[in-house]
TrEMBL record:
The lineage of its organism: Eukaryota, Metazoa, Ecdysozoa, Arthropoda, Hexapoda. Keywords: Metal-binding. This is oxaloacetate tautomerase. One of its GO terms (molecular function) is oxaloacetate tautomerase activity. Residues 8-173 form the Fumarylacetoacetase-like C-terminal domain.
Length: 177
């Protein structure tokens, strides 16, 4: 199975747009491995092709402008490098997606640190719910939500995120050319 997750390679660079305020959110990513539609919570994990670590980045300035104008939030979530992800972890590498530590440091300061056991919705519930509203296809990526501690990043910062002691990814932050 070939899965392309992001144009920002693990340990690449995060490029923030000029005149922006970008916030980081570390999240567990779930990569769908086989087509699923209207699946039960009990069978949902059978459709997982793997997992990844993701940084869901948001330009909050653009989100505020979009909200005020009644426009979609696309521009605040869709700039280049807005969702860097790690390599694909096969299910055997992450035996229990509901018991792994997610953490994020900015310039060495721990901002986010929680266990996926504390997630509002377990992975199986998310897959089941989404599959009842849209068909999930191989390679689809579901971000599961972020723990408390979301905050701004800026050019010159270094963002480091991890999934327990399984993997770590590091990104310098620069302004878009």
């Amino acid at each position: 199975m070939l899965v392309v997750l992001s144009s920002t390679a693990e340990d690449g660079e995060i490029e923030v747009p000029p005149n922006s305020e970008v916030h980081e959110e570390v999240e567990l990513g779930v990569v769908i491995g086989s087509r699923c539609k209207k699946v039960s919570e009990d069978s949902a994990l059978q459709y997982v092709g793997g997992y990844c670590l993701a940084l869901d980045l948001t330009d909050v300035v653009q989100i505020k402008l979009s909200r005020a104008a009644g426009l979609p939030w696309t521009w605040g979530k869709g700039f280049d490098t807005a969702c860097p992800v790690s390599r694909l972890l096969f299910p055997e590498e992450l035996k229990d997606p509901q018991d792994v530590q997610l953490w994020c440091r900015v310039n060495g300061d721990l901002r986010q640190d929680c266990n996926t056991a504390d997630m509002v919705f377990p992975v199986s519930v998310l897959i089941s719910f989404i599959s009842h509203h849209m068909t999930l296809e191989p390679g689809d990526l579901i971000l599961t939500g972020s723990p408390a501690g979301v905050g701004p990043i800026a050019p010159g910062d270094t963002v480091q995120a991890g999934l327990g002691n399984i993997l770590t990814m590091t990104f310098p932050v620069k302004i878009t050319d």
